[in-house]
Amino acid sequence: MIREACKQDIQALKSIVDKIEIFDEKLKSSANEIIEEAVLNPFLKSLKIFVHEDKDSITGYYCIGKRALTDGVFDLYWIAVDPAHQDNSVGRRLLSHAENFVKENNGSWILIEVSGKNKFQTTRNFYFRNNYSILTQITDFYSRGNDLLLFGKYLGKDN
Fold first, then answer.
1. Would strands 109-115 and 146-154 be described as parallel, antiparallel, or unpaired?
2. What's the rounded Cα separation, in Å, for the pair 28 and 8?
3. The pTM is what?
4. 73-81/2-4 β-pairing
5. What would the 3-class secondary structure string for the chain be?
6. pLDDT digits (tens, 9 = 90+) for 142-154
7. N- or C-end of the chain: fewer Cβ atoms within 10 A?
């Protein structure tokens, strides 16, 4: 089941972030800040977190938000799946839910920023398998040797 996150989920979400080995401390800190900001501020409409639950246990989540000054572009900030559940299609179900969320909110594009570091190759492959394309690459965006790859998928009326 996928549902919107609530206050009681914060520790479980942070626990998932902590278990993801490719996330460095800076990335984990950023993810945890976003979790708190999105879940604890009910008036914040620009960020939403949805959780995947299996047998009363949270196995993954995603964070999404509408891009300011656009008419229907959404940023998918995170999809994070507990490593113990990464081969159970949890990520695919979360991504599908995110795409439906965008469509239900009159969105046309979903954008995802991914690091160009080798350790994120599995992440990039996940998006390729789900029909996302690299729209642009910015060299040394995060730091020297760490490019930004902007993935996107058009979710127009036919998709």
1. antiparallel
2. 19
3. 0.93
4. unpaired
5. CEEECCHHHHHHHHHHHHHCCCCCHHHHHHHHHHHHHHHHCCCCCCCEEEEEEECCEEEEEEEEEECCCCCCEEEEEEEEECHHHCCCCHHHHHHHHHHHHHHHCCCCEEEEEEECCHHHHHHHHHHHHCCCEEEEEEEEEEECCEEEEEEEEECCCCC
6. 999 999 999 999 9
7. N
Residue the block writes with tokens 């060299």:
139
Q: Which helix (H) or strand (E) holds 15?
A: helix 10-19
Q: What is the pLDDT of residues 115-149, one digit of tens each?
A: 999 999 999 999 999 999 999 999 999 999 999 99
Radius of gyration of the chain (CA): 15
Helix 10-19 × helix 25-40 angle, to 10°: 160
Residue 10, phi then psi, degrees to nearest 5: -55, -50
What tokens does 155 get? 């979710």
